Amino acid sequence: MHTFMDAKLMAKLLRQALAERGIDVSHAGCLELVARQFGLANWNILSARIEANAQPDSVPRHWTRAGRSLEKYRTGVDQAQSAAWIQSQPQTNQQTTESDFCTLMQSFGAASYRGKKLRLSAELKSVDVAGGLTIWLRVDGPAGSIRFENLESFSQDGPISSNTDWVGREIVLEVPEEALSVHYGFYLKGRGKGLARAMVLEEVPSTTPLSAGKGRRLDGPTNLRFDL
């Protein structure tokens, strides 16, 4: 469900829908119409409200911004949706590729969780994403990463793209005895805007199935005769 923070996307979709019916309305005109839908007098008032809630180019307290080509991205907090967001810079969109990404993340010591299982869950929303938006969870040991999942190999419940409403995603990993640290967050690859909210990292029972083995990963060698 759209909120006033999605006004520009709503205006774009409105203009496309009107054009399909042979009605030509400028983007500025559609912005004015969207403002009226939210009970406001004009786009300037709605734009000011969006700016007041978005808090652009900020990093949530206790979170860290990381990634590749960070100059191509902005981050902020959407107070109206209780969400953090990552967005590609409009002026760099033509140069942004799917190898570019930005993440908001946290790290902490693994000592209290060794021998246990952790589940990371969150709700994600994508706006004009060309690339992918997903959560990720990693456990590091003395020699580097020893457990990692970002859902990119999942054919179902994996990264989202294009325009989607809020959807839930989760990852379950074990924390081996040699673990030193745990790292997690969400990231946007490529272009667009990705939002995350309701993020929870919690210990779960030992019987909870691990994320490994889902999606394109198989339990063992399968269909080696190439049957259709």
Automatic annotation (TrEMBL):
<dbReference type="Pfam" id="PF20066">
    <property type="entry name" value="Glyoxalase_8"/>
</dbReference>
<feature type="region of interest" description="Disordered">
    <location>
        <begin position="209"/>
        <end position="228"/>
    </location>
</feature>
<feature type="domain" description="Glyoxalase-related protein">
    <location>
        <begin position="3"/>
        <end position="59"/>
    </location>
</feature>
<dbReference type="InterPro" id="IPR045517">
    <property type="entry name" value="Glyoxalase_8"/>
</dbReference>
<protein>
    <recommendedName>
        <fullName>Glyoxalase-related protein domain-containing protein</fullName>
    </recommendedName>
</protein>
